[in-house]
Design brief:
The structure holds 2 protein chains of 2 kinds.
Chain A lengths: L2 H10 L34 E2 L5 E2 L1 E5 L26 H13 L5 E5 L6 H18 L5 E5 L6 H10 L2 E3 L7 H7 L5 H24 L11 E7 L6 H15 L3 E6 L18 H16 L4 H4 L13 H8 L6 E2 L5 H5 L6 H10 L7 H7 L3 H4 L3 E2 L11 H8 L3 H4 L11 H4 L6 H18 L1
Parallel strand pairs in A: 3-4, 4-5, 5-6, 6-7, 7-8, 9-10
Antiparallel strand pairs in A: 1-2
Chain B lengths: L8 E2 L2 E5 L3 H14 L1 E2 L2 E4 L9 E4 L4 H15 L1 H10 L7 H15 L10 H23 L3 E2 L4 E5 L6 H11 L5 E5 L4 E6 L2 E6 L10 H17 L7 H7 L16
Parallel strand pairs in B: 1-3, 2-4, 2-5, 7-8
Antiparallel strand pairs in B: 6-7, 8-9, 9-10
The complex binds iron/sulfur cluster.
The site of iron/sulfur cluster (SF4) has 9 residues of chain A, from loops.
């Protein structure tokens, strides 16, 4: 099979993976002046695919010849698809040639299970060794650790890669048992714990001897599929929060399930991928990582699923009106962060700018605050009592335009009759829903 | 010495300079000593004759040096970087905005660049952000082709970001020879035998692409087409992250134009 066919097959099998960032490490250039490669602190998108996602890394599988039969996966053994496997040197050559042309920041390597997890990991490690040692490649490498990989190979891969991840795959053990029976819970969490441990000791070693090779300096991540199984948004957010806490993960990625397989245990094949739900999960995740929100502030047993019409931060604000208005002249950074329309950057800028002058609406606008939303939640030097609010106008401003532009969709797979009618793509229906959402919200304000 | 008060009076003179940093700093010198706030400052390349008076300000290295040192001493190092950055921007009113900023900044001293609510300050910071934003996009969107012993790329940015691309690519490819040709500004960044230079150039014609080069281009195009998930098609989102004007120089995008 020629390299073109292999690349196509192994990209097709990898495309559902969500992570494509090069974050967590910074490298100025090749350590000894030989070879090539650096890593920028802010990450870098090299292109955007037709679905609007950023392309940073060459995201491919080592092999899609998988012996496992996870029900939701296109690469599962019982699926009738063409199979291919890269040799380590083919993969290394592709990476280098793409990198030299500035197509990519590096490699994101995943794989199906070829014979067993260790055999597969061995092949992956070989490819990374060719890259690192033969080519002197110092660009970014993210590699998956397959569930059940031995401690020795986890260590070997961790020393070669910048970031490693073990996928939790599904948001609960029950779903794992029914949809991916060959993947045991322990097989996932044992390497995950080993990696957490490796990163912590690695950091200590580097402090001691600066030359010690670093173990996964870009940290650990994971990913789960959303919408193939019945968990509520609240349980997913709580799981993510627990993973961040217990395993010190850098990122949790969410991947909207795209039905590719008919199976009575999975959503029907014509189900739209839950893109809005995925979007909300990323927003909630962002709130936990950058805005210091707790999972319990975002959702609750009473409100276990995301509000389709408002992003989680607006939703929190509307449910916590007693917290507002926030005085931009005095409030601390944390309180500023709670205001819809003020993010970490503009909160920091407000704190800097108010040392030198009083901040009115015009100043805030120059600073980059999204006044369209923020103005209902703040008091400023020129509006010391807050602006007078027409509830209906305010409600309209708070409604998330993405609720409608991301493609209307069914929000919860199993029980959401109230959102099902959204599937009608006729525009006047969307307008009606938008109107109704605004009215409903206005009464709440 | 904060509180260094510059007094200038609005005039209807247009300053014309050579477009370079020394030329601009000489304009600043001129404005402060003549106590005049010009109506505009334009480079000779952009100057269109009008009914207004104009003054040709010739670059003077000594005056430029005085202004430069004074900015560093009386305002901040950051203000000096900002000045250098602004000169790379394509915004047509950048020189006047920068002069106004400097007048304010000399008055208030080191805190100038953190007065984010101030109009003079936020104007120049916005221009700088726009320029740095384009630089950041290009770090990813630049496409090299291997011409056998030399990697070559073409860009056509609005802002003159070429000087700010050099360090990144030298760190990345210390052992390659490469050239980035900026079509908009007729300039090229050339890194050869570990030496770097940026020079003015006329239209550059690259050699034909080898079979090997086309092979990797095809592999990349195929990767690009395969990685997109058709159930999630979102051309609007793609366009907002990767504006169309960059596509012309991108191997995988050209055919979609
Ligand atoms: S092990 Fe991975 S590649 Fe194999 S079927 Fe399961 S999810 Fe798919």
């Amino acid at each position: 099979m020629d390299i073109m066919d292999k690349l196509t097959i192994l990209t097709d099998g990898a495309k559902y993976d969500a992570a494509c960032t090069s974050s967590g490490v910074t490298r100025k250039g090749p350590a000894n002046g030989k070879g090539l490669g650096n890593v920028m602190p802010a990450g870098c998108c090299h292109s955007f695919s037709s679905d609007g996602r950023c392309i940073t890394l060459l995201k491919v599988l080592m092999s899609n010849s998988c012996i496992y039969d996870c029900k939701y996966c296109v690469n599962r053994s019982s699926n009738d698809v063409p199979r291919a496997t890269f040799t380590p040197s083919e993969l290394a050559d592709l990476t280098i040639q793409f990198y030299r042309r500035n197509y990519i920041e590096g490699l994101f390597l995943s794989s199906g299970v070829i014979k067993n997890p260790d055999y597969t990991s061995e092949q992956m490690a070989k490819a990374l060794e060719v890259l690192r040692y033969q080519y002197g490649f110092w660009g970014y490498i993210h590699t998956k650790i397959l569930p059940g990989t031995s401690a020795e190979l986890v260590r070997r891969l961790g020393l070669l890669a910048d970031r490693v991840s073990v996928n939790v795959e599904l948001p609960s053990e029950a779903s794992l048992v029914s949809l991916a029976p060959q993947k045991k819970r322990e097989a996932i969490f044992t390497p995950m714990a080993q990696i957490t441990q490796g990163i912590t000791t690695g950091k200590a070693e580097v402090v001691q001897y600066r030359k010690a090779p670093k173990f996964a300096p870009g940290g650990q991540a994971t990913q789960m599929i959303i919408g193939a199984s019945p968990e509520s948004d609240y349980s997913i957010v709580r799981l993510a929060s627990a993973l961040y806490g217990k395993y010190d993960l850098k990122r949790v990625f969410y991947s909207a399930y795209i039905p590719a397989i008919r199976d009575k245990m999975l959503p029907a094949i014509d189900t739209k991928p839950p893109l809005l739900r995925e979007h909300r999960l990323y927003q909630a995740d962002w709130l936990m990582r950058e805005y210091h929100f707790e999972a319990e502030e975002i959702l609750s047993d009473e409100e276990p699923n995301f509000n389709p019409y408002m992003d989680p931060k607006c939703n929190w604000a509307v449910n916590n009106l007693h917290f507002f208005p926030v005085d931009v002249g005095k409030a601390d950074y944390e309180a500023l962060l709670r205001v819809p329309g003020i993010g970490p950057k503009s909160a920091a800028r407000i704190v800097t700018a108010r040392r030198h002058s009083r901040l009115g609406m015009a100043e805030l606008k120059r600073i980059g605050v999204v006044l369209k939303r923020a103005k209902y939640f703040i008091v400023t030097s020129d509006e010391p009592l807050g602006i007078s609010v027409n509830k209906y106008t305010a409600a309209k401003a708070l409604i998330d335009p993405n609720s409608f532009s991301m493609g209307v969709e069914q929000l919860t797979l199993f029980d959401a009759p109230q959102t099902r009618f959204l599937l009608d793509p006729a525009n006047h229906v969307i307008e009606d829903v938008r109107e109704e959402a605004a009215l409903c919200l206005a009464t709440k304000l | 010495m904060p509180g260094y008060k510059i007094v200038v009076y609005p005039t209807d003179v247009i300053y014309i300079y050579d477009g370079g940093i020394a030329g601009f700093l000489t304009c600043v010198h001129e404005s402060f000593y003549a106590k005049e706030l010009p109506l505009n400052i334009v480079s000779d390349a952009n100057y269109e004759p009008s009914l207004y008076k104009h003054k040709f300000v010739a670059a003077d290295e000594a005056k430029a040096k005085t202004v430069r040192e004074s900015i560093a001493r009386n305002i901040s190092k950051r203000a000096l970087d900002l000045t250098d950055h602004l000169l790379l921007c394509h915004h047509e009113k950048k020189e006047l905005a920068l002069l106004k900023f400097l007048i304010t900044a000399f008055r208030v001293g080191p805190k100038a660049t953190s007065m984010l609510g101030d109009k003079e300050v936020s104007d120049v910071l916005a221009m700088e952000r726009h320029m740095l934003g384009e630089r950041h996009l290009l770090l990813g969107f630049i496409r090299f082709k291997d011409y056998g012993g030399m990697l070559g790329a073409v860009i056509s940015p609005k802002n003159f970001v070429l000087p700010l691309l050099a360090e990144h690519f030298v760190c990345r490819f210390p052992n390659e020879n490469f050239m980035i040709y900026d079509k908009t500004h007729n300039a090229a960044l050339i890194y050869q035998d570990r030496k770097l230079e940026i020079t003015a150039v006329e239209d550059i014609k690259f050699a034909d692409e080898s079979e090997e080069e086309l092979h990797y281009q095809n592999l990349w195009k195929s990767f690009y087409k395969t990685i997109g998930i058709k159930e999630r098609l979102n051309p609007k989102c793609r366009m907002s992250h990767m504006p169309k004007r960059y596509w012309i120089n991108m191997v995988e995008m050209k055919e979609f134009l």
